Each structure stands twice: as C-alpha cells, then as structure tokens.
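Retry 2 of 3 after timeout on previous attempt. Resubmitting structure tokens to design endpoint.
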C-alpha cells in the first residue's frame, strides 16, 4: 500500500497575505484557490519541482496556532543561487550557513557535502522553513516535515510497526539530539521526529495528507495493524462534510483520519489519478 505524503497544512492568519508571500516572494506555484462560500477557502501552493505541497485557508480543518509549523525542509541543488533568488524576490532569508565542530558557522559547507549547507526563512506568520543543499535534486523540493513527539523510540515503533513506514535514517549525537527520518511507502516527502529537533508541543501537528489509491482498502489495512482510523467521510463542493466515501469517485474528496501516539493527525485522502491539484 503506497501512502504518498502530498499535503502539509499551514496555519495562517491572513489567507491573501500568505498567498501573496508563497506565490510571489517564495516563488511557489499556485495550484488551487477554491472558495465556494465565505466560510471555506483552500489555497494550495507547490514549491517548484516538489511532489508535496502546502495548503492554507479558511475552514481547512486545523486548530493549529498560526506560525506553529517549524522546520519544513526544502531541498535545492545550489544553496547560494536559491538564497540569491529568494532575496531578489524580497524574502528575508538567513544564510547560507553550515555546522562545524564548534556549531553553526556562516557560509556554505567547505566541502560542499550534501545535507551540509542551509538557509532559513519564515512566512509572515512565523511558520519556518529550512533550505538544504543536495546536488542534483529538483529546485525547491519539499522533502521533510518535522513532527513533534514525546518519545522518539515509541514513535519510531508506531510508524514502522503499525503504519508500515520505513526508516530512512536514525542519527543520535549524545543524549540531547536524535533525529529519526521515516518514509511513507511510495512518498517523495518524509517525516522527521526525535530529540532536540522541534520546539513545538508533541501532538501539535495536524492535517498531514497521505494520498492513497483506495481509501477503504488503506483504512482496512491500517486497522488490521492496530491503528485507530476514523470512518471514511467526504466533502461536497460547498465544503460540507458527510459520512462515507464520495460515491462519484471524485479524486481528493474522500478521507479518513488517524492520530499517532502523541495526537499528531493525518488524513488519508483518495486519489486514483496522477497529479497534485484538486479538480
């Protein structure tokens, strides 16, 4: 069962301001701006070259505090070029920088190693992003989402044993820092959790969208592994929630929700065709 991490919900204060920032200064592609009524609006923006997008809006189903999403990792092939382009568009960006034996140091990694050079910026609400250089990757690929957890070992067991995700890496440096990267099967974007990697409260990340081709089959498989997955539901074009899968079979319309051990929430979303945007 493939589980493609396709959407990350960002909590914002002003939807138009966020849209202007991401599609203007940050240079993301606008995929969707859907507003069927005054109580519901969803804006989907895609980092260039990325298989995972961000979503924000009104009534999009998150109670996260604006600015509370931290450490979203965007991979770029040339950190200096990416920083210059972002600055030229008006982004207040910090970097490039790298980490040496004495901690953070200014400039790119002297050996120009992959995963060694960074830059950081915030959106207008304070949601934070890290650019990370990996040669040969597409421009602006959203690759890692940081999930806040209480116990890294317990979380690792849940994600591997119950969700069936694979361990991409597990790196520990002393008692104060550990980072575990997990890959949903078939996904271009991973999640990271650990010790010393996220300032937010465990369980505060909500609305991560995992795309599956058959919602009922995916839900049954997870339930069989002991995951407490809610009943399927769907939304009408007007944004109204109803029980059961969407009988028309429309992509991006049928969902089921589950939580990890800390209460971070995921939405299974049925998409039978290729693509990122909603109809």
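Retry 2 succeeded. Sequence:
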């Amino acid at each position: 069962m493939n589980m493609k991490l396709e959407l990350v919900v960002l909590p914002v204060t002003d939807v138009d301001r966020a849209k202007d920032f991401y599609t203007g200064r940050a240079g993301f592609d606008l995929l969707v701006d859907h507003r069927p009524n005054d109580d519901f609006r969803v804006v989907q923006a895609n980092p260039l070259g990325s298989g995972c997008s961000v979503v924000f809006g009104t009534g999009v189903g998150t109670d996260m505090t604006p600015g509370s999403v931290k450490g979203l990792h965007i991979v770029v092939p040339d950190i200096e070029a990416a920083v210059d382009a972002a600055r030229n568009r008006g982004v207040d960006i910090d970097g490039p920088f790298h980490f040496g034996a004495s901690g953070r140091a200014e400039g790119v990694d002297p050996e120009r190693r992959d995963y060694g050079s960074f830059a950081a910026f915030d959106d207008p609400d304070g949601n934070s992003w890290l650019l990370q250089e990996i040669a040969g990757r597409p421009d602006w690929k959203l690759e890692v989402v940081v999930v806040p957890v209480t116990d890294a070992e317990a979380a690792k067991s849940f994600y591997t044993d119950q969700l069936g995700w694979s361990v991409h890496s597990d790196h520990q440096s002393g008692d104060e820092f550990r980072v575990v990267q997990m890959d949903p099967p078939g996904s271009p974007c991973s999640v990271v959790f650990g010790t010393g990697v996220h300032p937010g409260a465990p369980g505060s990340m909500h609305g991560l969208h995992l795309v599956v081709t058959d919602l009922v089959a995916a839900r049954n498989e997870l339930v069989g592994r002991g995951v407490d997955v809610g009943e399927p539901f769907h939304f009408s074009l007007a944004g109204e929630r109803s029980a059961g899968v969407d009988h028309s079979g429309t992509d991006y319309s049928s969902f089921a929700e589950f939580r990890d051990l800390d209460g971070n929430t995921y939405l299974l979303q049925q998409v039978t065709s290729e693509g990122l945007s909603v109809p």
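Attempt log closed. The CA atoms of residues 167 and 206 lie 22 Å apart.
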